[in-house]
Fold this protein.
Amino acid sequence: MHERLTMAILLSLAACGVEPSDPGFADGNTEATDGTIADTAVMDGQALTAASGPYFTTPMFFNTDVSTTPKAANSAAIISSLVAAGGWGNSNKMQIDFALDVLKADGSALRSFTPNADFYAPDCDQAMMPVPAGGNLEEETGYACTHDGDCHLLVSDPAAGKLYEMYRANITTTFQGGCLAVWNTKATYTTTLRGDQCTSADAAGFPIAPLLFTADEIKAGHIDHAIRFILPNNRIKRGYVRPATHATATTGGSTAPSYGFHLRLRADYPIASLSPGAQVVARAMQKYGMYHADGGNIALTAQSDRHTTAKWAGLLGASDLGALKVTDFEVIDHGSAIGLTYDCVR
């Protein structure tokens, strides 16, 4: 769940003015600027191609092999703090959430949106984005946010070199949107990504799509990137470590990890004891690790199979990694924690 401590201040900023649209979107599209959607009905129930990685032309932090990187000096202390706090959440069970979809733009028209209460300036991008026909939000069958969840809208446009990730989207007769992060997939990002102290559609400031694993990857037998994971906010202390650029309200103790910390499955873990699909995930955890990205109780995030070729049934179940405990992991050192100020600099 994406949160900000300074909500009232940021909402005031959003009301006073937001960032100008990215010049790259000035393509002559005649979509109305008030967010009105005239053809919502055609969006549901149509065939759609799922987007797939790698999304970025230049390798990013999540592509780095850390299998031989020394663990952090305080790794044992951090792991002990997580154990004492209750581990993964949900009764200390590592579970998998299959709710997020990544849609492929496929030439979809760009649409404007009206910022809602979850749009923060200057962190978020006020820009037009593609809304592919037949697509859907996280945990929804279409583009209406009917269950009042995070309702992420993730759309990849490889031809344009853009990855659009929106938090709390809702498209009915109008297009309302929360924080939109537009990633330039042809750019080489620095250690501060889109900006230090800046959030994205994920609280740590990361891109979401490149850290999701898919049924197609499990079917192929390899995941070539790190994995996104989340923890209850009472397991995390205030502040963040690189490559994160942002954090949220957390209440963990002094030895707890910081937002964005990096875990790696121990090299000696007996992955042969896991199901074949779980072994694929475990090998990626040993080679690339997993990055803490947000708050919540279901530790791992996989991509839905709604639009993918392979399907999760028979490949991997929600509890197939339940044997993995916090004590089976080590912490990779990414430097000292950075104090959280919410003073986003883009």
About this structure: Confidence is low (pLDDT under 50) at residues 5-45. The CA atoms of residues 203 and 294 lie 5 Å apart. The radius of gyration is 19 Å. The first helix runs from residue 7 to 16.
